[in-house]
Write a structure and sequence with these properties.
The chain contains 1 helix and 10 strands; from the N terminus they run ββββββββββα. The protein has one helix at about 165-170, and strands at about 10-15, 30-35, 45-50, 60-65, 75-80, 90-100, 115-120, 120-125, 135-145, 150-160. It is globular, with a radius of gyration of 15 Å.
Length: about 180
């Protein structure tokens, strides 16, 4: 776990990928965060945040969203403000899902894909999805609140073979 002392505070999850080759349908990836209660940290998420939503209290939201990748570095960004998250929440799992169309795609099909988790200028995690190349969705990190109330992060790269909707139900389950 990282984030000793006062915990993580505010972190960003940043996602990048290159656009589709000419003549192919756009490749669309999304960062997804699922928030779990202290009472049921591996049950159903209390709420899910993605490109079309934010947390009810504004502590988790998308500040940048792309539907094509554009190839200009990190084009999708989610901000998580753990220092403001209510004490009823004890776990947040963050993942990435690939929107599927008539030609299903995996991370191995997405050029120059990558994700980083940063706190200020400190990089907490970086991954290129190569270890989940056959997956259509993947968790990347698990954030948990300690008994003292401080938030920490653990890398959690796990691949899934599901669409974004099903992924939100599966992503926080036990490993």
């Amino acid at each position: 776990m990282s984030g000793a002392g006062h915990g993580l505070g505010k972190v960003e999850v940043r996602l990048k990928w290159d656009p589709s080759p000419p003549g192919q349908a756009p490749r669309h990836l999304d960062i997804i965060a699922a928030t779990y209660s202290v009472d049921d940290p591996h049950g159903r998420p209390v709420y899910v945040v993605h490109y079309d939503s934010r947390s009810p209290d504004g502590t988790i939201n998308m500040t940048r969203h792309s539907q094509t990748g554009m190839g200009f570095g990190f084009v999708e960004v989610m901000v998580l403000e753990f220092d403001r998250l209510a004490p009823v929440y004890g776990r947040v799992v963050v993942g990435v899902a690939i929107h599927q169309d008539e030609n299903p795609r995996t991370f191995g099909d997405i050029a120059n894909a990558g994700v980083v988790v940063v706190r200020g200028y400190q990089q907490l995690l970086a991954d290129d999805f190569s270890q989940v190349a056959d997956a259509t969705a993947a968790t990347i990190a698990e954030f948990t609140r300690s008994s003292s109330g401080a938030w920490g992060m653990r890398e959690m790269i796990r691949g899934f073979d599901s669409d974004p909707v099903l992924f939100t139900a599966e992503m926080g389950g036990p490993q």
